[in-house]
UniProtKB/TrEMBL annotation:
Organism: Nocardia speluncae
Lineage of the species this protein comes from: Bacteria, Bacillati, Actinomycetota, Actinomycetes, Mycobacteriales
Keyword vocabulary terms for this entry: Antibiotic resistance, ATP-binding, Nucleotide-binding, Transport
A Pfam family recorded for this sequence: ABC_tran
Keyword Transport set for record: yes
UniProt name for this protein: ATP-binding cassette domain-containing protein
InterPro entries linked: AAA+_ATPase, ABC_transporter-like_ATP-bd, ABC_transporter-like_CS, ABC_transporter_ATP-binding, P-loop_NTPase
Cellular localization per UniProt: Cell membrane
Coiled coil: none
Amino acid sequence: MANSVPNQGVGVTAIETCGLTKKYGERTVVDAVDLHVDPGRVHALLGPNGSGKTTTVRMLATLLRPDGGSARIAGYDTARETTEVKKRIGLVGQFHAVDSRLTGLENLTMFGRMNGLPARQARTHAGELLERFDLGAAADRLARDYSGGMRRRLDIVAAMVVRPAVLFLDEPTTALDPRSRNQIYGCVKEFVAEGTTVLLTTQYLDEADRLADSVTILDNGRVLVAGTPHELTASIGGGLDLVTDPRRRRDIDIVLAGFGGTATTTGGGATDESEAEAPLSYSFPGAEIPLLPILRALEDAGIEVHDIGRRRATLDDVFLTLTGPAVRTPR
C-alpha cells in the first residue's frame, strides 16, 4: 500500500487496557477488562451476545468514554490523547460505512480526501486498492449495487485507505457466504503481513481459529480466559462426536456428564424422525476420553450409537464449555 503504518515506537504495545470498565446506570457491561496485544498481530474478542465485545471496541476507538480503568493504543491514552489515537486507528463496525449513492471509486477517494490525501493521489490510491482487493471491475458501480460481500470488503478497504496501526473489525463477516468470508480473511492477512494490528470480534469461532494469534473470551463483561488458540483448546482436553438418536439427547447428556463430558451442540432433543442421524458433540476436560466405558454406559441406557469418534478440541468447545450452550441474558 502507498501509505505506511503510523509509527508507534519500538517496543510499544499496540493495544493495552487495564481494568477497562463501562456502566450504564446500575448495569456494568464491561467489567475491569485487561488486554495486551502486540503490534502486527490479530487478537480475537469472543463472547455471547451482550458480553461487552462491541462496547469494548467502541471505547478503544474513542467513541465511548470508559467509566473506569485505562486504555492505550500504540502508546497513546484513549481518554487524554484522543487525537493521536484517532490518527492510528481504523474501524469497521457492524453496519456499512460506505455511501451507497457513490461508486466504489468515489467512496475510497472520499475517504482518502477526508484523511488528508491530495485529490489526484486519493483517486489514484483508491483505484489501486480496488484492483488489489478484487473490486476493480466494480470501481464505477454504485455501492448499493454491490453484493453483501463486496460492500463489506469495500468497508474494510475504506478503513485502510490511510493505513492505521490498529484496525478494529466488529463482526465483519456476519451474514456473509463462505466465499465472501474467505475473501475478507485474505484482506485481513494482507493487512497484518504489512504491520497492522487487528482486534476482531466475531460470532464465528472457526474465524478466530483461522485468523487469531491470541484470544480473549468475555462473558457478562468479564474476562473468562485469554491465551493463544492452541493454549485454550489444550486447556479443555478433547472432544467426542457421535451419531445417534437426538431424541434421546437428555439421556445422552446425563450419561456423558458422568464421564465429565459437556455438550457443545445446542438443542433440547429432536422430535422429528428425519433428525435421527444428527451428530452430537461433547468436550471433555482430559486428553484421554474413555471411549469403551462410554459406549458400554450408552448401551446400558438403551441408546444405540451409529458412529462415534474422538477429535481435538476447537474454540467452539472452549467457548461453550466456559459460557454454556444456552443463550445468555446480559446481567
